[in-house]
Structures are given as C-alpha cells and as structure tokens.
C-alpha cells in the first residue's frame, strides 16, 4: 500500500510540473480556483459555527 501511495504522489507531482511548464497561465488559474474553493469552504464553516452558537 505504501508503494502505491509513493507512485500516486510521483504521478501527481509530474502532472503538476508538466502543467506549470506547458501552460503557466492555466496553472495559475487552477491554483486561484483552488484557493477560492478553500476560502469559500472556510467561510461556510465559519457561518455554520456562528449560527450554531447563536
């Protein structure tokens, strides 16, 4: 199982590097979308906790 995780991590790393090298604009857009998603999720959790306390 550990070997499969190492292989999967290697494949993901190669894919990320390939994407950054071949199309940096697209890679930057994907990173921005990812951070926006994380931000939206954190805001949702914050709102949920606020409503839970009230």
Compact description:
The chain has 54 residues and is an all-alpha fold. 94% of the residues lie in helices and 0% in strands. α1 (2-22) crosses α2.
What order do the helices and strands follow? HH
Q: In which range does the helix fraction lie? A: over 70%
| Poorly predicted residue ranges | none
Give the rounded overall mean pLDDT.
Answer: 91
Radius of gyration: 17 Å
Number of strand elements: 0
Structural class determined from secondary elements: mainly alpha
Shape: flat
**Separation, N- and C-terminal Cα atoms:** 45 Å
> Number of helical runs?
2
Write up this protein.
- The structure is a single chain.
- α1 crosses α2.
- The model has no long low-confidence stretch (mean pLDDT 91).
- The protein is built from two helices and no strands.
- The protein has 54 residues and is mainly α.
- The termini are far apart.
- Helix content is 94%, strand content 0%.
Q: What labels describe this entry?
A:
54 residues; mainly alpha; 2 helices; 94% helix
